[in-house]
């Protein structure tokens, strides 16, 4: 078990080093920080002094070492556009994105697992066929099309839900939340559904496929031959084993939802990290762009590592292979 954990942690460190290298290359080769930060009427001498201040006159290996040191200490630089620390900007936008992702993940699991079970237990039924058709449409429709359609229906036609913004929020220390206000909850509905739709259909189809495979195994046939109740067989035996791959997919989907909430946040003007990244791209704000890359990369690595360790705990076969 210790060997498995150490191996996963070693792999995580190597991946994060690769991510920091990519983020550093963005600083080094995507535009010239000196020309962006200097005044329009700055002289050549002033630009050279700024270059020395930023350490851009040093060898690239030394610059990368300094960059790693700053990242390790939590210093992600100053935003070119806002002239504020990037860590402050991320701390302000992170609660909005995390709340959106949390609600989208809960929706995906709460609806995807039951619908997948229904489709697996009655694969030829009318309800299962309807679910499969709707899931195919959901997984094939681009996110921005879904978001615009929901805005057209619920915001423009019926005018019952807001089409943009986060609504009223409550400040709890450094965290801001819309869960405690009516307008905040209403503002969360449409973007959460839009963000959840793809992962919901993915989880549903995965549960259906895994359930069908598990229900055809010998131990399920043996359980039926023993006369065990159908509810026990379906939900205690079959579903329990079918949910193992869902652990991995859900972990990956959480990282994906955070990374790819960019489109949803842009459509609904949701003030999260995705919208911050889009604005940074528009203004070539390299510190914000590289910080976003580092943050998303760290989340993916962290979630994957935790899922791998959880798998090793749950499935003893993995521990045997690694020993």
Mean pLDDT across residues? 82
Which word captures the global form? Answer: globular
What is the helix content? over 70%
User: Any idea what the radius of gyration is?
Assistant: 24 Å
Q: Can you write the helix and strand succession as a string?
A: HHHHHHHEEHHHHHHHH
Can you tell me the CATH superfamily of the largest domain? MetI-like
Distance between the termini: 8 Å
Overall number of domains? 2
How many strand segments? 2
**Helix count from the secondary structure assignment:** 15
Largest sheet, in brief, is: 2 strands, antiparallel
Point out poorly predicted stretches: none
Question: Strand portion, in percent?
Answer: under 5%
Biggest sheet, strands in spatial order? 1-2
Decide which structural class fits the backbone.
mainly alpha
What is the CATH C level class of the largest domain, in words? Mainly Alpha
CATH-scheme architecture of the largest domain: Orthogonal Bundle
Examine the coordinates and then state which fold CATH places here, giving the name of the CATH topology of the largest domain: MetI-like fold
Write up this protein:
This protein has helices at residues 2-29, 33-37, 44-54, 60-72, 86-121, 126-140, 143-157, 182-215, 218-225, 230-242, 244-259, 261-267, 273-282, 286-314, 316-322, and strands spanning 170-172, 175-177. With 323 residues, the protein is an all-alpha fold. The chain folds into two domains: 1-81 and 285-323, no CATH class; 93-282, MetI-like (MetI-like fold), CATH 1.10.3720. A two-stranded antiparallel sheet has the order 1-2. Helix 6 (126-140) crosses helix 8 (182-215) and helix 14 (286-314) packs across helix 15 (316-322). The chain is globular. The termini are close together.
